[in-house]
Specification:
27% of the residues lie in helices and 26% in strands. By secondary structure, it is of the alpha/beta class. Strands 2-1-11-10-12-13-14-15-16 form a nine-stranded mixed β-sheet, with helices on both faces. The chain has a five-stranded parallel β-sheet with strand order 4-3-5-6-7, with helices on both faces. Strands 17-18-20-21 form a four-stranded antiparallel β-sheet, with no helix packed on it. Strand 8 and strand 9 form a beta hairpin. The model has no long low-confidence stretch (mean pLDDT 92).
Length: 496
């Protein structure tokens, strides 16, 4: 079953998308996707080809995503605000053959050196294009083609993640992985999903939570999605009230912002029936403030890209601020100690996950895949949790050094590589530190070379030229040396 077919059964007059002030019904969306699918086939896109999407949360993204899947190709969602160098690395690493560029991604794509991307044949622009490129509208006008059948194990999406170790790599998610997790999420409600729901699409669609939980679940249920390209707290509230949003999911930063706005009335979110926080740990104080001020019980869960992403949720369970709930149906969880034995109630252990939503591995990286997936199909997450006597799970730590900024993964090695390229940097190390709004922030420790007078702003700006903004250090400490163990490995715990 091709995941793209989830939009096929629904009432053609029902609203599917609200984007940039325009409404798209399911009937219109099916016609548009079919035409775009035909246009891609006309270009020569074949099953298994990788096609990137460089686009914000709007109609361009959704139609591109569904059309790519429908051809049997593999969708590669990317951050439209990525620096050119980062984008080049990602495009080259998975051999992208074509890229769909929305309005928000055009300037980024213009800065890319295409000579570094030998596999890239087609750049498809949503608005405006230079000579030799393809225009979105031309593909939409093509003769529609049918959806290409896919098996559940066939690759559907590649999403870049830091995984449990190493620099960012592409996680391979199959049609079955994604569809199973969509149905696991919808199954939590017990009603098969409500087609009258209106979701709020603020979580980035290049992030697995936004892509599969928010968008995928809504399209599967035949519900509507309000697509939001940038978060502004006041305009977001206006949109929620204007469109009667009933399902509201976002990162902890969104909820923290609203909790800190005294001008919001108690009935601000009166239409919302389901409220969720995800992508990063939620401060229990924020959850309590939202409940007391607005009467919303924030459901929290745990997940990761490699699990498509939902593993646990507190939805439908007794309210326990700080808990990520229990496993969704069809997912097995073990908490394992350092000896590989299951831990006792109340004792911390690494989270191992097994289920139909667990990914196929990392693209062209057998070593990383073996480190993450064992022979019995258990995904070793690198996250540490404990379970109480009621079966509720609480996250307590991470085995690895992954930093999570507003729900986005940052691996220190990637930032350190960029820092080390700066003239005057002898040694460097990066850690995550608590941040009141983003959960964590990146902090760098730099040992200058003798004779160099480095400035903090210059170091941060150097990183900003090479990395997405959320990966850049917000603070730089200049030190004489870095703490190391007897093997020479930097002791990040000491730095934290």
């Amino acid at each position: 079953m091709n995941l793209a077919s989830i939009i096929e059964p629904h009432d053609p007059d029902s609203v599917a998308l609200i984007s940039r002030g325009q409404t798209t019904t399911y009937g219109e969306l099916r016609d548009q996707v079919a035409g775009l699918r035909g246009g891609l086939v006309g270009l020569g896109i074949e099953p298994g080809d990788r096609v990137a999407i460089l686009c914000a949360n709007n109609w361009y993204f959704v139609t591109s995503y569904l059309a790519i899947l429908g051809t049997g190709a593999v969708a590669v969602p990317l951050n439209p605000l990525s620096p050119a160098r980062e984008l080049e690395r990602e495009l080259a690493s998975v051999g992208v053959r074509a890229i769909m560029v929305g309005p928000s991604g055009r300037s980024t794509m213009d800065a890319v050196n295409r000579d570094r991307l030998p596999a890239l044949e087609f750049v498809i622009h949503g608005e405006g294009h230079s000579g030799g490129d393809v225009h979105f509208d031309d593909l939409l006008a093509a003769e529609p083609t049918p959806i290409v059948p896919r098996d559940s194990d066939d690759l559907a999406v590649l999403i870049f993640t830091s995984g449990t170790a190493g620099t960012p790599k592409a996680a391979m998610l199959s049609h079955g992985n994604l569809l199973n997790n969509i149905d696991q999420v919808i199954g939590l409600r017990g009603d098969g999903g409500n087609h009258n729901d209106v979701g709020f699409g603020i979580l980035p669609l290049f992030h697995i939570f936004g892509l599969n939980v928010v968008l995928g679940s809504a399209l599967r249920a035949g519900a509507s999605v309000v697509l939001v390209e940038r978060f502004d707290p006041s305009s977001a509230v206006e949109a929620i009230q204007r469109h009667g949003v009933t399902v509201l999911a976002g990162a902890p930063t969104m909820w923290a912002t609203w909790a800190a706005m005294p001008e919001l009335a108690p009935d601000t979110f009166s239409t919302v029936g389901i409220a969720m926080s995800g992508a990063a740990p939620l401060d229990p104080q924020i959850a309590t403030a939202i409940r007391e001020r607005f009467g919303l019980e924030l459901g929290e869960g745990y997940g990761l890209t490699e699990a498509s992403p939902v593993v646990t949720t507190s939805f439908g369970l007794p309210w326990r601020p700080g808990s990520v709930g229990a496993a969704v149906d069809g997912v097995e969880i073990r908490l394992v100690d350092i000896d590989g034995q299951d831990t006792l109630v109340g004792d911390p252990g690494e989270i191992w996950v097994r289920g139909p939503n667990v990914f196929r591995g990392y693209w062209n990286d057998e070593e990383a895949t073996r480190a993450a997936l064992d022979d019995e199909g258990w995904l070793h997450t690198g996250d540490v949790a404990l379970v109480d006597e009621e079966g509720m799970i609480y996250l307590v730590d991470r085995v690895k050094d992954l930093i999570i900024v507003s729900g986005f993964n940052v691996f220190p090695a990637e930032v350190e590589e960029i820092l080390a390229e700066m003239p005057g940097v002898a040694e460097c190390a990066v850690v995550g530190v608590p941040h009141p709004h983003t959960g964590e922030a990146v902090k760098a420790f730099v040992v200058p070379e003798p004779g160099f007078a480095l400035e903090e702003d210059a170091v941060i700006e150097h990183c900003a030229e090479q990395l997405a903004r959320y990966k850049c250090p917000q603070k730089v400490n200049f030190v004489e040396s870095l703490p190391q163990n007897f093997t020479g490995k930097v002791l990040r715990r000491a730095l934290r």
